[in-house]
Amino acid sequence: MPSESQIPIASADAPRRFASRLALFYGAVFTLIGSHLPFFPMWLRAIGIDASWIGVIAAVPAVTRFTVLPFVTSLAERRGALRGAIIVTAVMTTLGFSAVGTQHWPIPVFLAYAVTASMWTPIVPLTDAYALHAVSRYGLRYGPLRLWGSAAFVVGALLCGLLVDVIAARHLIWIIVAMAALGAVASLGLQPLDHPGAPPAMLRGATALLRQGGFLAIIAASALIQGSHAAYYTFASITWQLSGLGGLTIAGLWALGVMAEIAVFALSPRFTLQPSVLVVIGALSAAARWLITAQEPPVAVLAVVQLAHGLSFGLTQVGTMGLLVRHVPIHAMARGQGYLAACAGIVASSASILSGAIYARHGQGVYYVMAAMALSGAVVMWSAKHYIAFSSEVGTGSREENASKKIDTRF
User: Fold this and answer.
1) Which of 29, 206, 215, 376 could form a disulfide with 332 if both were Cys (CB 3.0 to 4.6 A apart)?
2) Rounded to an integer, what distance in angstroms lies between the CA atom of residue 4 and that of residue 84?
3) How far apart are CA 39 and CA 36, in angstroms?
4) pLDDT tens string 7-24
5) Residues 6+ positions from 107 with CB-CB distance below 8 Å
6) Half-sphere exposure of 46 (CA within 13 A, CB side)
7) Which spans in 268-364 are helix H?
8) In terms of Cα–Cα distance, which of 64, 254, 225 is closest to 150?
9) How many angstroms separate the CA atoms of 292 and 368, rounded?
10) What is the pLDDT of residues 115-147, one digit of tens each?
């Protein structure tokens, strides 16, 4: 990936133009996620793949997060080519999903999906790092940019929800391919903003993050809490479909969760609690959510439970990003997010495989295991919160660095 030079700020319109193109790309990326997450498992089931294999295949993206993803983010950071990496991965993702759609047996689907996920999973960490560089340069606010992604997730989920009732489930993969192609086109509109590669001393310093107990506690707690969503992401749509819910109702349930997430992101600047406390609240909310889901509640109760996604996912993300911006210098942000994604991948892939095996035997009982994971995340964060508060003051100095650049810490 060639290094891209910094361009001058030509006019007051430059930040607005940059923000609109980045928001468009965030929207395209999360439209793909919104169509993939609820309905890819349904496609797998429609082509005859059983629950155990679905669990294994669904774990593939999480595995790539701790294998391929850190390599890609590190390479892009060293070469100063975040935009170039985004374009390459977006195009390859489209080609990959097209290849997946031509397969119908477990092993070929698994292999094609593994290659695709290797290109797909780095896109969001790369885009977040690219956005933070823009925040530093243009003084943009990160939260409003990211909100377009969450809103687009709802659009993708509702679109697939409408289509699932009028087309055969075995054709859903081509909707996912179309959304991936939209992202590839949108990536071409991103402006070349990347700085030259960071000096070697800074890159060596980035690896020091893995020797900081506070940073390790942050990514471990986040991985456990977010990993507890594995059974929900993999089997919720299948369970709801088997219980007789239509595609639009299923999409509506997913949309409720994401709308609650958007509300949390929008209100996050008003939060006065410490980020570590927000993470603990998110973990406890996740545990309560999974305990209720395990009882197989009726759709009315399920709709209310879905609103807890704003806490179990959204509040955990807000707290995690607030902690990272205090611990990770801006020049190492791509690598720091790569480490976070890697830890989350290890936990989520294990949880996905485990949930597939448990779901095949005990159905909704799998959510008791997810509740235990979320509680473990709360314990890790609560146990380390005093150390984290201290190390954020004396560790990396990133709080002062980021404050001087007016970085919006909302996720």
Assistant:
1) 206
2) 8
3) 5
4) 444 456 777 778 788 888
5) none
6) 17
7) 275-293, 299-306, 309, 316-327, 333-362
8) 254
9) 9
10) 999 998 889 888 887 876 776 677 666 666 776
